[in-house]
Write a structure and sequence with these properties.
alpha+beta, 151 residues
């Protein structure tokens, strides 16, 4: 076996691996291309944003998370909201999925997220909201950042 006979398959494998890496690697601003695509492709859901402060209720068993969403036409949006909060050595989490009607405007909704094991407490948390809509076109938009939990 010569170097030339080994080099060609190795180069081919390297090119395939590089292409797969680029295809599946998230962009530095993953939300911007989705929002732009939703506007130009005519998808109904155009923006989803997690609010700045969630309200703790039921002694920490639940938190109400503010979410704003914008649609270019009336549609149903599946909203998934995840909350995680680290306090000391423990992490409190919760996830909720709701179907929300969206008209052709920007609207605000409050989504209740129940704690999985440990109760939420006042302080900093991390939230992720994902909106999925499928009418004539399907699209998904995500917003994620730290936010405050307050009583």
């Amino acid at each position: 076996m010569t170097v030339r006979s080994i080099r060609r398959p190795l180069v081919t494998i390297g090119l395939i691996a590089a292409g797969a890496t680029l295809a599946f690697a998230p962009s530095a601003s993953a939300n911007a291309p989705l929002r732009a695509a939703a506007l130009t492709d005519g998808a109904p859901l155009t923006a989803v944003a997690l609010g700045g402060t969630g309200k703790i209720d039921a002694n920490g068993a639940a938190v109400f998370v503010p979410v704003s969403l914008t649609c270019s036409q009336p549609t149903q949006v599946d909203l998934t909201v995840k909350v995680a909060q680290a306090i000391g050595e423990s992490v409190r989490t919760g996830t909720t999925t709701r179907k929300v009607p969206c008209d052709a405007t920007t609207q605000k909704v409050r989504i209740a997220v129940t704690a999985t094991e440990l109760p939420f407490a006042p302080g900093v948390a991390f939230g992720v909201v994902t909106g999925n809509s499928c009418d004539s076109l399907c699209n998904s938009i995500t917003d994620e950042h730290r936010f405050d939990l307050a009583l």
